Amino acid sequence: MLSAHEEFLLSVDRCDLRRVEDIPDELLQDPFWQRSKQTDRGRDGCRVPLPWSGEQPPFGFTADGARPWLPQPEGWKTLTAEAQRSDPGSMLALYKSALALRRAEPSLCSADLVWNEDRQTSCPTGEGLTSSCWPTWLTSPWTSPTTTTSC
Q: pTM for the complete prediction?
């Protein structure tokens, strides 16, 4: 999200969706499933249609009453884009605020942005950079600094 040239967000990341592990075997469609002689469930758990709105499947992905190619969990009703749009604590809100911060912070879009190579504290550095990052690959507990940001 920091690099102006290498940015992408998966829809499942934006909505905090998890891999669906309990798709019945007879509904699996990924070729890995067949090629592995039904030992590797493949990617279908990550290819479940996105929940857009509503309280029950198909969550606005297709017409009510129609069945999408893979089943959506009932529990996704709190993770629809519609539900997350009105929740300031949702994953969607977090990504939207991070993207807004990125647009508002010129140094994050600068070609001068470089990475500190220390894997324990690897964060971008650059002229005038005022943002912070918190690596997720640390192996010991870490407490983030308390900061106040007004955007």
A: 0.59
